[in-house]
Amino acid sequence: MKKTIEVFSEEETRELGKQLGLHAKPGTVFCLQGDLGTGKTVLAKGMAEGLGVQEDILSPTFMIVREYKSGRLPFAHFDVYRLEEGDELYEIGWEEYLGLDGVILVEWADLMSDVMPGDAVWIRVTKNLAEGTDYRRIEIASEDSAAEDLLLDSLFPRA
Fold it and tell me: What CA–CA distance (Å, rounded) separates 82 from 119?
């Protein structure tokens, strides 16, 4: 399943993340792709808000992973930009994180696509300055049929 959403402000990007967080199920892995400055961290902050995380969400660029446990589900926010291969992710406990009943968000996941689970939800954020400085095209896809309800509920809430 694949859905494309266009947003025209930082607030809309954050709200999309919030909706994904509100509807995320235990064990969901979100793989986030996008160039620098496309709004990946804004989406992550929205997702954390939807999960009920109380702490400030900071980019994990230099730490690789930040954990938040104050929400309805544990939230692990990874930034794998500085890693060179999947083995390094395993060295910091990737398997343990996958075994938790929380939500995982991996920024720059395309750099480690070989170790991402097959049922992950992939999110690609792109800019098009011709559409405006705050415009973002957000493509959300998953090969997993279980993710279909998450995407439908998040993107098109049922009344």
Answer: 24
**51 burial type by CB count under 10 A (0-12 exposed, 13-18 middle, 19+ buried):** buried
End-to-end CA distance of the chain: 21
| Structural domains of the chain, with CATH | 2-155 (3.40.50.300)
Task: State pTM to two decimals.
Answer: 0.88
Q: Give the burial string for 10-39 (b: 16+ CB within 10 Å, else e).
A: eebbbbbbbbbbbbbeebbbbbbbbeeebb
> What would the pLDDT profile of 70-111 be if each residue is shown by its tens digit?
999 999 999 999 888 888 989 989 999 998 889 999 999 999
Distance CA 58, CA 87 (A): 25
